[in-house]
Amino acid sequence: MSDLSAIVTTDPDIAKLISQEEQRQLHSIRLIASENYASAAVMQATGTVLTNKYSEGYAGKRYYEGQEYIDQVETLAIERAKALFGAEHANVQPYSGSPANQAVYLALCEPGDTIMGMSLPFGGHLTHGWKVNFSGIQYKSVQYELHPETHRIDLDQVRELAKEHRPRLIWTGASAYPRTWDFEAFAGIAAEIDAVLVADIAHFSGLVAGGVHPHPFPHASIVTTTTHKTLRGPRGGMILSKEEYARDLDRAIFPGLQGGPHNHTTAAIAVALKEASQDDFKDYARRIVANAAALAAALMERGFSLVTGGTDNHLILFDATAKGLSGKEGSTAMQLAGIEANSNAIPFDPRKPFDPSGIRLGTASVTSRGMNEEHMGQVAAWIDEAFAAHEDPGKLDSIRKQINEFCSGFPCPGIPT
Ligand SMILES: *Cc1c(COP(=O)(O)O)cnc(C)c1O
Fold first, then answer.
1. How many whole angstroms from 100 Cα to the centroid of ligand 1?
2. pLDDT in tens, the chain (417 residues)
3. Within this chain, do residues 245 and 103 fall inside the same structural domain, yes or no?
4. Engineered SS bond to 121: which of 66, 148, 205, 345, CB 3.0-4.6 Å?
5. How far is CA 121 from CA 166, 344, 355, 414, in A?
6. Which residues of 234-267 are buried (b: 16+ CB within 10 A; e: fewer)?
7. How many Å lie between the centroid of ligand 1 and the Cα of residue 263?
8. 230 CB less than 6 Å from ligand 1?
9. Which ligand 1 atom lies nearest to the CA of residue 201?
């Protein structure tokens, strides 16, 4: 258990909720594709005196005194980010993935400019031009979808839309696409219309860092990412880019969008980047992909219908209705059995967003706690059992007890035993 003694004294209500959440994370099989377990070192960095310090500006050019240590922290984070991702420039100040993307717009576009990204119900992110997001409100957004039969990216459609609408920037990367991205092909399309290619690798930056996903550089000019998904750092964001965009991107983050950087987060990002540069991180990234492939195969063997028939990365999307439940009914049954996932739209989904047809799974969290390919058959069996028992609370509870027991064999990084 984590040491919450000071919180217990000051605020027992919050202390109790934190420790309940900790137990929940310990005892369930967490398959939410955007989540993970940050290491003890990352967690410790976030809870330090660095949270007390204001540092508007950039190293060597701050608006407040007393930056002799903060400047070194941020510079280390930047140098590590550049080295890990082979980037000419890095900004580690974005408060999270969405503000990182917002800064890209602010740096490159005027309100009303045309931009292009993958449509949200097909797997794209809100910030890639979805209609209710600032990106769809302030810019003229063109959205590409997926091929109607293969449910993979249709480069002909992307090229056609690009030539017709001539967007200023093109987003690649998504939140629910189980296949790799052909950044080179996108760069070719962007070059034809003189657009800037941006890769949002929020979900799979850990796989890129670990060498098991195609690299966005040199094809993309700008790369954005969260730091808390497969990269396994604190909640935060980064922008990596070619030198040519460095000044505009830095100015877009500060003073364009943000005030003082979250220095405690910057330190935790630096720690996570150091961890990600070690050999065992490569092994972790390789095991994430192997676990996703094993889980996909085991689910298909049990009659689950996977979008694109499998996965290349950490993520699986399946059609729950092929097993007789809606996405929400399926994810609720799984939750009651101790397996966490989220319902998700599938390509060309006929159902409504709040109760779509699909369920999205990811293997980063289970990999971080040491589960391997040999365990994925059992996880698939439990998902199948939870589906079958969706109207049987007693049976779901008995699965939950087995899963609690199973999970106790896998310690969670960042949670003291
Ligand atoms: C998660 C995600 C983001 C946004 O991250 P937040 O930290 O939640 O703001 C941006 N882009 C993609 C593709 C994502 O999956």
1. 9
2. 889 999 999 999 999 999 999 999 999 999 999 999 999 999 999 999 999 999 999 999 999 999 999 999 999 999 999 999 999 999 999 999 999 999 999 999 999 999 999 999 999 999 999 999 999 999 999 999 999 999 999 999 999 999 999 999 999 999 999 999 999 999 999 999 999 999 999 999 999 999 999 999 999 999 999 999 999 999 999 999 999 999 999 999 999 999 999 999 999 999 999 999 999 999 999 999 999 999 999 999 999 999 999 999 999 999 999 999 999 999 999 999 999 999 999 999 999 988 999 999 999 999 999 999 999 999 999 999 999 999 999 999 999 999 999 999 999 999 998
3. yes
4. 345
5. 23, 8, 12, 34
6. bbbbbbbbbeebbebbbebbbeebbeebbbbbbb
7. 20
8. no
9. 13
**Ligand 1 centre and the CA of 410: distance in Å?**
28
Rounded to the nearest whole angstrom, what is the distance from the C-alpha of residue 54 to the centroid of ligand 1? 25
The verdict on 112 and 157 lying in the same domain is: yes
Host domain of residue 202: 44-276
Active site residue 311: no
279-301 vs 373-388: helix axis angle to the nearest 10?
40
Domain CATH for 321: 3.90.1150.10
Among candidate residues 127, 172, 224, 226, the one labeled active-site is 226
pTM over 0.85, yes/no: yes
Q: Judge whether 56 counts as a catalytic residue.
A: yes
Q: Looking at the structure, do residues 118 and 174 belong to the same domain, yes or no?
A: yes
* Residue 231 near ligand 1, beta carbon < 6 Å: no
CATH number of the structural domain spanning residue 145:
3.40.640.10
34 in ligand 1 pocket by Cβ < 6 Å? yes
Asked if the bond preceding 148 is cis, omega within 30° of 0, the reply is: no
